[in-house]
Amino acid sequence: MNKMTLNLGPQHPATHGVLRLIIDLDGEEVVSAEPDIGYLHRGMEKLAETRNYYQYLPMVDRIDYLSGFFYSYAFCNAVEELNHIKVPQKASYIRIMLMELNRISSHLLWFGTYLIDLGAISPIFYAFRERELIMDYFEKITGQRMMYNYFTFGGVRHDIPFFDDVQSIINTIGDKIGDYERLLSENPIFLDRTVNVGVISEKKATEWALTGPNLRASGVLSDFRVNMPIYDDIDFDIVLTNEGDCYSRYLVRIYEMRESIKIIQQCIQWLGQCSSRDLPFLEKVTLKTFPNQEVFSSVEAPRGLSMCYLNSIGGNTPYRVKWRTSSFYSTQILKDILVGVTVPEIMAIYGSLDVVLPEVDR
Predict the structure, then answer these.
(1) pLDDT tens profile 97-151
(2) Which one, of 21, 11, 63, lies nearest residue 362 by Cα?
């Protein structure tokens, strides 16, 4: 064997962040692959120990800058459990609506950048065109396009009157998803690059603790939304495929966007029947002295199950905050699934996992 070691990254446009892959090659075939992380570490967990709960809340959006609403929800929900705060139902529906819009915007960005990884240029312009509608709406209600800081302890920061805007957005995106499928789902070049490439079996997916679309694409019926109380009255289907390849992961995310539209439609209908006197926040939220207690809070984020562990020993500053992020597990499996593939397939496989490096190097 004539082995050659290739450093892929940490500065590489297709690693979507500073990831270094140390790859041993025999010709074009990968013999071993070792993910080398740590180039982006920002100490998001350690920073919580020197800030009170209100000061730390704006920072959690940055753990995954593409799905900040989900991390805000996880942290707010943990603090609400510690303080026995009951969130108004209107706030819960607003939270669901915004998280599902955030899921669509995240999947759209993945869709566009994944096709760039495979050499197709046009789809990223289409995906960003639709994503811009969601970003404009987020900016309209929060003042920000990425780091929203809109969820707060006990609800949301202010009411949302712009439900017609949301209806228009999901109508447009629903139509465009069909265009994406017509463009790619039977495209012979796309099929050659994704079908039977990067196969993750059901057994392997569970052994490596994958969650989210990457797990469901391998035939595992698991979506934490069914365990989240705020989704109890929401009707949606869990998207599932069985092949476990790159193409299956593409299909799951495409169909999940359609399910998110269905969920958002239900939220709009419920919120439209709400009285204008109903407030989506508690007028007075006083964080009491925290008990000596630990809680877990979980949310089904666009990349999978994300968990917040919060340990309190009293006072208004957390003793420990730990995050379980799905991209970390999607990165560690690379050392297994890249063995035996060729160099051009590396980015096709890695891109299909939808890794965001701030989730890895928290």
Answers:
(1) 999 999 999 999 999 999 998 989 999 999 999 999 999 999 999 999 889 999 9
(2) 63
- pTM: predicted TM-score of the whole model, two decimal places: 0.94
**Element housing 178 (H / E):** helix 163-184
Distance, in Å, from the CA atom of 244 to the CA atom of 267, rounded to the nearest integer, reads: 32
Which one, of 23, 1, 3, 12, lies nearest residue 338 by Cα?
Answer: 23
The dihedral sign for the CA sequence 179, 194, 8, 110: positive
292-301 vs 155-156, strand pairing mode? unpaired
Options 1.10.287.70, 1.10.645.10, 2.60.120.10, 3.20.20.70; CATH of 41-326? 1.10.645.10
Q: At what angle do helices 89-117 and 246-272 cross, to 10 degrees?
A: 150
Q: Which residue has the tokens 């919580």?
A: 48
Q: Which residue type is seen at 309?
A: Y
Residues 6+ apart with CB under 8 A from 171: none
Angle at which helices 68-83 and 89-117 cross, to 10°: 150
Taking the domains of the chain in order of start, what are their residue ranges?
41-326
Place of tokens 């990884």: 117
10: preceding bond cis by omega (within 30 degrees): yes
